[in-house]
Amino acid sequence: MDCRGRSRQTSQLFARTVAGIDPLWIPELAPHLCQTTYQNPQWVVSAGNVLVDEITTLYGLEVRKRKVSFGNINPAEATNMFIRSALVEENLLPSQNDNEEGDDRDDTRVFTNLHRKPAVPPQYAFLEHNHKIRQKIETWQTRLRRHDLRQPWTTNCTTSTQNK
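The structure corresponding to this sequence follows.
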């Protein structure tokens, strides 16, 4: 982007005082002209946070796009997303399957059990307890042959967070 200070017109138009403008300066220098929208909130395991795409536009032209914490924008919805995505879907810790390509766990020289789950850190021991309770409920529903029962972990989580 260029900012023209003076122009001189002869047979052609010449800009005399030209300065470059970095588009990332615009939200800082002219926040009153910028419009910010937030899209696509999601739980990101590697960040350990609910992130959202922040898109800043100037007269419809996108000048900045970045990921920001959704907890600063909408704490209640961020908490619900964390509970659903990280705790209920058991997606709290980074997966051990995301190892480097050079990993040879399936090689016959390695004598480890491939199906063994990695040890959960002690501060997350409650995840194993929650998983066992969910398995009990699912087994109970199967035995009763009633799959139309509402599963408690799929409901809105606002009731558990309101008492705090």
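DSSP finds four helices and seven strands in the chain.
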